[in-house]
Structures are given as C-alpha cells and as structure tokens.
Design goal:
By secondary structure, the chain is α+β, with helices and mostly antiparallel strands. Among the domains are: 7-45 and 150-218 and 322-380, FAD/NAD(P)-binding domain; 220-319, 2-Layer Sandwich (D-Amino Acid Oxidase, Chain A, domain 2). It contains nine helices and 20 strands. It has helices spanning 14-25, 60-80, 100-110, 120-126, 149-162, 208-211, 287-300, 350-361, 376-381; strands spanning 7-10, 30-33, 49-52, 85-86, 90-94, 116-118, 137-141, 145-148, 166-168, 173-179, 183-189, 194-195, 199-202, 220-229, 245-248, 253-260, 263-268, 310-319, 326-330, 333-340. The strands form four sheets. An eight-stranded mixed β-sheet has the order 6-7-5-15-16-17-14-18, with helices on both faces. It has a six-stranded mixed β-sheet with strand order 9-2-1-13-20-19, with helices on one face. The protein has a three-stranded antiparallel β-sheet with strand order 3-8-4. It binds flavin-adenine dinucleotide. Flavin-adenine dinucleotide (FAD) binds next to helix 1, strand 3, strand 14 and strand 18.
Length: 382
C-alpha cells in the first residue's frame, strides 16, 4: 500500500478522468496513468462530438441515468466556463408507430420530461430538409444535444489536476500484480516501474479485456464507422442552432449538425466487424459504408445524398452481450474496480459513472443502483 499515489486510475478517457475528478473533489489522492496523452486520438472519448439523449425506448433505467447525468454536465459547463454540452435538441425520425420512438415518448411523458411528437407538417416547417413522406412523425426532445467529447476529457483532466490529482501520460500498464490473498498489489508499466496505490480503478476502454486478461471480462471489441460530410447545398441550415442531433436508431443511423470545418457527421450504432485499435489498423471507413450513408440520406434527408466532400473515420466499441456496462469490484480483489463495457453509449453518462466509481472506491453507497452492471451477471447466464 502506498498512500502517496492514493487511488491508481488506469485510463484517461472520459470515464477515468471523471472518476479522478470526483475522487480529487472528495479529497482523495489519485494518480491517473494513460498509455497515450489525455485526451488522445485513439480513445473512444477522443472524437469531436458525442450525442446526449434522454430517449432509450422503453428502458426507463437509462433515461433516469441520463436525467441524473444532465446536471453534472451543466455543472461542468459552469465550472469550465465553456459549453461542453450544447443542448440543441434531438430529432428522431420515426419510421413506424408503436415502435422505439413511441416507447421513448411514453417513458419521457411518464417521467414528466419535455418531449414532443411532431407531425409531418411540423417537421417540414421546422426541418424542411427532412423527407417527411418517409417518416410517420418526428420525436423531438429539447434536453438532448451534443457533447464536445475531447474538450470534455481535457476539461475534467484539468479540473481534476487543479484539485490535486496527478496525471502520468505515455505510461502504459503492461501487468496487473494480484493474488487471491492480497488482491491488487500494484500495476507494472512498460518501463518495469511498479505503481502501488491503496485502490485501483481500471477504465481502459476497448483495451480493458487485455489489461485485465486474468479476469477474463466478457467484452467484445468492434470497429464502428463514421462519415464526415460537407452538405452539398444550403449549408447554413445545418448549423447547430438550426439543426439538432438527429437519429433513426432502429435503423442504426444517427448524426450531428455542422461542427468541424463545415462538415456534419453521420454514423451507424449497429455493431460493426470485430477489430481492435492497433497501430497501422485502417482508420478509413470502407466504401460500402459511404454507400449506406448515401442511401440513408437519399431516403430521409435527400439533399445531403449527393455529397462530394467527405471523410470516413473508425472508432471502437467495447461491447458486452447485453449492452449494459460493467461497473463493479474485481473478483477476489476487493481493492480493484472496473468500469468498462460501455457498448457504444457510455459517454453521456460519464460524469455520473465517474462519481459512482469514486463513491464505490471510497466505501460509500452510490446513489446509482448497480445491480444491472454487476460482473457476476454473466456467470449466472453462462
Ligand atoms: C464511433 C463512436 C460513437 C459513439 N457515440 C456515442 C454517443 O453519441 N453517445 C454516447 O453516450 N456514447 C457514444 N460512444 C461511446 C463512448 O464514446 C464511450 O463509451 C466512452 O468514450 C468510453 O470512455 P472510456 O473512458 O471507457 O474509454 P476510452 O475513451 O477509450 O479511454 C480509455 C483510455 O484507457 C487508456 N488505456 C487503455 N489501456 C491502457 C493501459 N494498459 N495502460 C495505460 N492506459 C491505458 C487508453 O489509452 C485510453 O485513453 C461512441 C463510441 C464510438 C466508438
């Protein structure tokens, strides 16, 4: 045990930095290690934008989690004096009734949260670029929006360090030293240095299964494709103040208004092919994905379909079988904790997840009910 390092956090993505922020906020010594810089282009948190939404179909548990995360994001906006979360609303294109969007509407209504079902006419009036013949209605919630992802990581990292946290970038953990008797005894880095702390949090994103290979976490990593597209016409009306985050999640597609160099982004939330971020692994989206995006636009936002300027990108999901996270202690290691398996939808919850992990590490009883995120759920289902 080495009090000077305090809690050792492995991973400087949005989960690791929010946990470090809350641990430091609660006066706990904390040392964060990352194999790259914080933020970095390889991490899932290292992109420009991530969507914030309250809508989760009939799954009120996640809607409730997003409601709990919202004031924490607004707290960051205030503390960092910058709009990291921009609530420009979320428009979901319902292609059928009695489906996912209807369920989301019912849950938000039930929870007395602002949400509207826009008729085709209303969609046409507000978002004339949408082909309303292809939809049943538009589901709009104003609390939804976009989070500047890399900026969020940088902000939480800076604030955590202001509160006393120590960050060590370019420090790759290559081994976790542990045994049944004493739990985690330390982590060894690529230089052979052993870092000892009084507790350990592993938030290594898609690298977590490898980092914790002795614990055999049931996480599968997939390659996820995104496309940055410059609207061929009427660019102004795709600005965030005129055009919200958009989605047709049952079809997989979602996207963001103009945000970087005059480009907007579209992506597919459905699981991609297996594959890990490795040096030299292709970072371009395949032509087939460009074709899929064109087809999506041609049907739902036709004037975007003939884009000529575009750039593909690849990122990675750390998937669990049920798409629920893993937020738990490690088996036979009472001083070891893991936060992983975010299955492509963890960013919006990160301040709440970070706070929860800090509470768990400090022996408190987290506000969040963690039953759904326990590791043992996989063993009982095996
Ligand atoms: C294409 C895409 C789109 C997404 N869209 C959304 C969205 O719209 N809304 C949403 O809520 N979520 C979204 N997500 C999910 C979200 O981005 C992730 O759940 C979140 O970023 C995970 O953060 P993390 O901190 O767990 O992992 P990461 O951000 O990947 O960070 C892990 C860090 O751990 C470090 N690390 C790993 N192993 C080691 C080691 N051995 N030694 C030292 N350091 C190590 C890595 O270098 C990395 O910096 C999306 C994800 C992707 C890929």
């Amino acid at each position: 045990m080495n009090d000077s390092n305090g809690v050792i956090v492995v991973g400087g993505g949005i989960v690791g930095v929010t946990a470090a922020y809350w641990l430091a906020q609660k006066g706990r010594a904390v040392t964060l290690l990352d194999q790259f810089d914080v933020p970095n282009q390889w991490q899932a948190s290292g992109d420009h934008l991530r969507a914030f939404r309250l809508t989760y179909g009939k799954d009120a548990f996640y809607t409730d989690m997003a409601v709990k995360a919202l004031p924490l994001w607004l707290g960051l906006n205030a503390e960092w004096e910058d709009k990291i979360l921009v609530q420009n609303g979320m428009l979901e294109l319902a292609t059928k009734t009695k489906g996912y969007e209807d369920q989301s509407y019912d849950v938000l209504k039930e929870m007395k949260l602002p949400v509207v079902k826009m008729s085709k006419d209303e969609v046409r009036r507000n978002y004339p670029m949408v082909n309303t013949r292809a939809i049943k209605y538009g589901l709009f919630h104003k609390d939804g929006g976009m989070i500047w992802a890399q900026r969020a990581v940088a902000a939480y990292a800076a604030l955590a360090q202001r509160k006393g946290a120590k960050f060590r970038a370019q420090t790759r953990v290559t081994a976790v030293l542990h045994d049944k008797k004493s739990g985690i005894k330390g982590v060894k880095d690529a230089t052979g240095k052993v870092w000892r702390g009084d507790a350990y949090l592993f938030a290594g994103g898609v690298w977590t299964p490898e980092l914790l290979k002795d614990f055999r976490l049931p996480i599968k990593v997939t390659r996820q494709f995104q496309l940055y597209v410059r609207p061929p016409a009427n660019r102004g009306r795709y600005r965030p103040e005129h055009f919200p985050v958009f989605a047709a999640l049952p079809l997989g597609f979602y996207g963001f208004p103009l945000h970087i160099h005059g480009f907007l982004k579209v992506a597919d939330h459905r699981k991609g092919p297996a594959g890990k971020p490795e040096p030299g692994s292709p970072r371009e989206a395949p032509p087939a994905f460009e074709k899929k995006c064109r087809a999506f636009f041609r049907r739902y936002i036709p004037e975007l379909a003939d884009f000529t300027e575009f750039e593909g990108a690849v990122c990675h999901y750390d998937n669990t079988k049920d798409d629920d996270f893993i937020l738990d202690r490690l088996p036979d290691a009472p001083n070891g904790f893991v936060a992983a398996g975010f299955s492509g939808h963890g960013f919006k919850f990160a301040p709440l997840v970070g706070k929860t992990m800090a509470e768990m590490i400090m022996g408190g009883k987290p506000d969040l009910n963690l039953h759904r995120f326990r590791l043992s759920r996989f063993r009982s289902r095996a």
